[in-house]
Major facilitator superfamily (MFS) profile domain-containing protein (Oedothorax gibbosus), 430 residues
Amino acid sequence: MQQKWHRPREKSRMRDLVKQPLHSLKHTDKSGNQPEVDRRWFGPKSGMIMSCQSGAFAISKFIAGVLSDRTNPRHVFIVGLLVGGIATVLFSTVPVSSILILCGLWFLNGVAQGCGWPSCAKIIRQRASPTQFGTLWSILSSSINVAGSLAPFISSYIVLHYGWRASVFTSGIISVLFALLGAFALQLSIGNEETCESSNTKKCKASATNNSSEGSFLDLLFDPFLIMLSASFLVVLGARTALATWGQLYLIEERGRSHYEGSAFASSIESGGLLGRITVGYVTDRLIQRYTSKGSSPLNIRLSVAVAFMLGSVPLLHALRVTVTEDSSNVWITFLGFMIGALLYGPISIIGIVSVESAPAHLSGSSNAIASLAGNIGAIISGFPCCYLAEKYSWSTVFFLIEVAIGVVSIVMFFLKNLRPKLLKHKKAD
């Protein structure tokens, strides 16, 4: 029998759904400004700034994920949103010649952004029933795509009419305002927070004692299943970041498309990602309800869907390289972006879900942090290293390498998807 949602939990989920896109907005706004900024700074310098943010984001997200198992995740979220907004506002005021200051501010922005998702992931794991976890995760993560779909158009409009500084400044101010509103809402919700009642104190302590005996952080680091998951996340998230960030520059510089057509492609990736995230969460939850009674592993079911999505993205990535020209239909380009977004964001969502489900509750944040760290290393690679390769060769070459990498990882994941997480094995044996 499904557990009913209590009103404080409903309000909490709504606040998370509103706040999480704001962390994404600060990142996607940079993507929307990319072509304009690159004309003044050239690709490598812009890629250096992006890699600074991605590196800081990776480190911060890893630390925040581990801390989410030990602290209140909501406070971390609010502080990150506020600091990130302030860093973004300051970024818009620095001269373009001060590259070190710009890198430093965007590094701080990445640190602040890293506090966002681990907090939300921990809250969902604590409050969602197993049959709703995938769906709720997908709905919350899809809120990022809402910001990602709107940001390229909004930022392009502001850039063309008021300059890139106004665009960055606007996203920073919005983040600061919502951080203040979130802090106010957090204070109001403290009295409604559901905690262990005094009558259940002994039960909670016993549960914590049992959890501590089910494994440690080091067990996660050497878990073959999590290593496989992390390697897959590195490739898929790196591919998504490269396409979302540099795809429009590829269309503008190498295929002769307009700035707005490039923005439409970037927006279509996020729009497709919205569909992909929600679809995989709902579909895998339904498949688990149907087939787990027949002996199928929930993790195996989710990873099978992820493999199917990843393999489906390969021919579309190939089509993006070989069929798009200066005369190609904008509808076709937008369609490619939409489908690529759906087929890449789907596995990203699934890997995030599986990383949380593959560990005991007291290590779920740490497990997700490890997988996310690998994914964000992929995002770092999509920054300066990809820019360097594109400068030496072309963006078409970069996208060809991405196409090959996804194909290889899909095959490897297909043959290894029957692995069982080490800690879940021990738990089942006990």
User: Anything to note?
Assistant: Residues 156 and 162 are 10 Å apart (CA to CA). The two ends are 26 Å apart (CA to CA).
